[in-house]
Specification:
Blueprint lengths: L17 E8 L4 E8 L5 E9 L5 H4 L8 E8 L10 E2 L2 H9 L8 H15 L5 E5 L9 H4 L6 H4 L9 H15 L4 E7 L3 E7 L2 E5 L20 H10 L4 H10 L2 H6 L5 H9 L3 H25 L4 E5 H6 L1 H9 L10 H5 L6 E2 L12 E2 L8 E4 L4 H18 L1
Parallel strand pairs: 1-4, 4-6, 7-10, 10-13
Antiparallel strand pairs: 1-2, 2-3, 5-6, 7-8, 8-9, 11-12, 12-13
The structure holds adenosine-5'-diphosphate.
Length: 398
């Protein structure tokens, strides 16, 4: 099915200025950010709010000045194989997003509710844009997205989609800007959910999450890849239901499952430092899988020029970066311990990008490293605001 954006009036402006509201209805929180868009179409943040999952939009934005809003952008986790890029939301687009609810049950339902809430609050004429977490990986070749299962899976849409695309796109673009455009890089999004993207010439060529966000790396509470035979065994011989498996794999695995302490890397590292053996094991599995995941993407890229760490763990944990990079020395990865340990805003600060608060983005590789290693602060909300401007600008010019 082809669902296209519509011709519209573009980004609404009041006295030459426009404000874009970005809504990110995640499974653990609702983040709302208000941006003001300059003449150069670059947004800068003017207000931020947070709410509980499922909290009505009206209460999340209760303290926000609603004047001058010209567009609303939404982060949508699953765009299926329909959406390869951001689109203006029409009734057809909204219906398609609701249909993908089956693929991302924790997310798309909340996202559709936010689209409806925004139409209610700001009126049906308010331009709304969907930015998909799967879209950036729309450039994967069949070799990367077809699973080696029965071929009919593919006809049923069962294929690798990949997620965290908004973050991988922003972070790889920012790294290219900082380094002057390396052709082959891997971006590591390490938050509660974790994924890698292999990026050649600015396009995603492979990624570790798959049909769902459960595949690939070990995460906070998600297992990442495990032998699927385990699931058959648990159902056939141990009487576990589908709901049990869903709960175990999504909420009782990963750092939390192995350590028995928490899915939060800070608590796992603190326990490890106190001598807790299961915390040590959880940490070792996490960095081992991270390093082998990175190494596993190198053949597809034909080499590696840059490695980029982002999101909660990637931006803040010098321990995780040091341990993963230590396992990749044979690949020519060498980090400078002082730069790696430096507080978030220290180190080789890089100026340049015209964007909102780029401070903290820094290079942490040693002078003799064959691979340049960066820490980049991900800005998904900003990227969505930028997408809104781009989409509404193009629809207006058509
Ligand atoms: P999300 O994926 O939900 O957007 P984040 O990107 O904010 O989440 O990442 C959240 C995770 O980041 C937390 O669970 C925590 O494990 C980790 N984190 C945050 N700060 C630190 C830190 N200083 N050291 C290690 N891990 C951290």
């Amino acid at each position: 099915m082809a669902v296209e954006g519509v011709k519209g009036e573009g980004l609404r402006k009041t006295a030459g200025r426009a404000r874009v509201l970005v809504i990110n209805a995640g499974s653990s929180s609702v983040k709302v950010s208000l941006f003001e868009v300059g003449e150069d179409l670059l947004p800068s943040s003017v207000w931020e709010g947070n709410g509980e999952p499922g909290e009505p939009l009206e209460t999340v934005i209760a303290g926000m000045d609603r004047a001058g809003i010209g567009a609303v952008g939404h982060r949508i986790v699953h765009g299926g194989d329909v959406f390869r890029e951001s689109v203006r939301i029409t009734p057809e687009v909204r219906a398609a997003i609701a249909r993908f609810g089956e693929l991302a049950p924790e997310h798309n339902r909340l996202e559709v509710a936010m689209i409806e809430a925004a139409a209610r609050i700001f009126g049906p004429e308010m331009p709304q844009v969907a930015a998909f977490d799967t879209a950036f990986h729309g450039t994967l070749a069949p070799e990367a997205y077809v699973y080696p299962g029965p071929y009919e899976w593919l006809d049923r849409g069962i294929r690798r989609y990949g997620f965290h695309g908004i973050s991988h796109q922003y972070v790889s673009g920012r790294a290219a800007e900082i380094l002057g455009g390396p052709r082959r890089m891997i971006t590591c999004h390490l938050g509660n959910g974790c994924s890698l993207a292999a990026i050649r010439d600015g396009r995603s060529v492979d990624t570790t999450m798959g049909y769902t966000p459960l595949d690939g790396l070990m995460m906070g509470t998600r297992s990442g890849s495990v032998d699927p035979g385990i699931l058959i065994h648990l159902m056939r011989n141990r009487g576990h239901s589908v709901e049990d498996l869903d709960r175990m794999l999504n909420r009782e695995s990963g750092l939390k499952g192995v350590s028995g302490i928490s899915g939060d890397m800070r608590q796992v590292i603190a326990a490890m430092k106190r001598g807790d053996e299961r915390a040590r094991l959880a940490f070792d599995i996490y960095v081992g899988r991270l390093a082998s995941g990175i190494a596993g993407l190198v053949p597809e890229l034909g080499g590696l020029e840059a490695l980029v760490f982002t999101a909660g763990v990637g931006e803040n944990s010098a321990e995780v970066r040091a341990a993963a990079c230590g396992r990749l020395e044979w690949l020519g990865v060498k980090i400078d311990p002082a730069k790696n340990d430096g507080a978030k805003n220290d180190g080789a600060k890089i100026d340049g990008a015209k964007n909102d608060a780029p401070e903290g983005d820094r290079e942490i590789s040693g002078a003799d490293s064959r691979v340049r290693v960066l820490v980049v602060h991900t800005k998904e909300q900003w990227q969505i605001a930028k997408e809104c401007c781009r989409i509404l600008q193009t629809t207006r010019e058509r």
